[in-house]
Request: fold
Amino acid sequence: MEPSATLDSLAQELRVFRPLPQLVVEANVNPQELVAFRRQAERDPLGYWEEAADELDWYRKWDRVLDDSDAPFYRWFPGARCNIVYNCLDRHIETANKNKLALIWEGEPGDSRKFTYYELYREVNRFSGALRTLGVKKGDRVAIYMPPLPETVIAMLACARIGAVHALTFAGFSAKALRSRIRDVDAKLVVTADAFYRNGQIIKLKPIVDEALVGGADSVDSVVVVHRATVETDMQEGRDFWYDDVVRRERREAPAEVMDANDPLFLLHTSGAAGAPKIVQHSHGGYMVGVSRTLTHVFDIKPTDIFWCTADLGWITGHSAVVYGPLLAGTTTLIYEGHPNYPQADRMWNIVSKYGVTVFYTASTLIRMLMRFGPQYPRMHDLSSLRLLGTVGEPIGAETWLWFYRHIGRGECPLLDTWWQTETGMFMISPLPISILKPGSVTRALPGVEVDVVDREGASVPPGKGGLLVVTRPWPAMMTGLYGPGGEEQYRAAFARFHGRYLTGDVASRDEDGFLWILGRSDDVLNIAGHRLGAAELENAFRTHPAVAEAAVVGVPDKIRGEAAKAFIVLVEGRKGSTELMVELQNHVRRELGPVVVIKSVEFRESLPKTRSGKILRRVLKCAETGADPGDLSTLDDEDAPE
Ligand code: PRX
Reply:
């Protein structure tokens, strides 16, 4: 494999790829229509989004499209009443979609389950009823700590259907991390599984929930446990219930709760650099409009598609591109329980050919990982069903882009590099299948989305120059708040620095042709294999070890994960750095935060660089690591910058 291209050579990447003529003819949005959409959205952005909203079903339409009287606390579609689940399920069972597959699930051992829209609708109703019977009401928070199972999707939809707010925690997180997430949202109920299959092993999950609930998650009244693998499971009388038992007597038909467009749909944690992770809130109305329009445009959804987004359901990609987006679009969504390399490095391609996947959307980190094993693995399978590829999560880089395009997409499938965030809810910058592509570029903002690349003063930077990526206009799927103490100020801060423009925290540049290139995060959020982790969260975990006095963690480039964590540690008096201690600290942090956290290396130091006010200057450490000039915008870390 060649070394990855540097950012400079990426920005000068001259190769362009055009879609095949047949694809342009068949696309839902052809080039003329795209131009028309862009023109309309520029002239009348609210009208553009209103048309998108008109494609969905509402119990009551909006009084106006956007209320910006309390900006940046925007309210999309105020006065409207809807339920996103009505649009994901009920709407389809009135049409030919009723008996179409909504969900295909494959377990790691190779078992499989399938649900039509009608079957999924009925299962969701039964679990909604069970939640109600267990005392969950509109507005209550439900924590979901689940592997990728059909019941995970059912639980999300069942919550939303009755107006409860789901909050997923990735099943790789530890009991401690789960406990703080449950507490953060005051969850009333937890949905989990007894165990699941991963890398040929059975991983127990329920004991982690038990541990999380010991000594302080008082808000939780009940735990519902989905049976997945045969393991011994302790059930606490009166608190714990088997999923099969609670749904048994519930009705299969029940109406969805009528929600205000701005009522919360879900909460999702993301990591903040300066302290606790942020808890992003999305709501029913604007989110469904934004996600539905952008997903159908970008992935050109056809009635015969099998749509596979490989993201875990615990991330925003899982919410928007595995559950809500595909179901809003009436397509068939696929989920896989296990490890991508189990039992060997062709598992993903085996699934593509087995089910005839047509759209394959994944994280660039996964492609980098699979690339290492060589093209002989995809070659073992017939991948001719694929017509579109997608990537997300971090800059993919030209080498990985080209490998994915050639070896998976046969050099024929457009590769759609979608830029977005937990906060944006929907795709923001992305090509469409008809677009001209440059490997490594996310191309342009979608119609109705307006972005800019600006310097520290907020002025647009010229082509080829790095700057801060900002979104200059509200968009319908934007977060509707940050939950918890201090959330309001955090939210306001994201819009404050550049007078109402949303600061994404990413550094980007635009080339002479107007193509956008994402260069990475400007703040102290690490993006390890597509998982965002706050430097502060990692440092706190180090500091719980008795040998550690001070800790600073920075992200350093990593071929496989995109970014990896490097720690700088000042030891307590009397302790000396050693290889043994380094390994001990690495394991300690994994125990604290869960196996998702990989610390690449640990360096012992006498002191750490700090600001006058005592804040650690991670930027200086990072620049020394990467050889970058500390004045470089790409590592900008102004004291006044919102995280
Ligand atoms: O830095 C950007 C990177 O992922 C961040 C958002 O992370 P999260 O909220 O976890 O959502 C990830 C999936 C939507 C962004 O600020 N990122 C996301 N997509 C891309 C990307 N970086 C480069 N290219 C992308 N396509």
In short: Residues 142 and 595 are 24 Å apart (CA to CA). Residues 1-12, 631-643 have pLDDT under 50 and may be disordered. Residues 270, 315-317, 392-395, 417-422, 442, 504-506, 518, 521, 527, 532 surround adenosine-5'-monophosphate-propyl ester (CB under 6 Å).
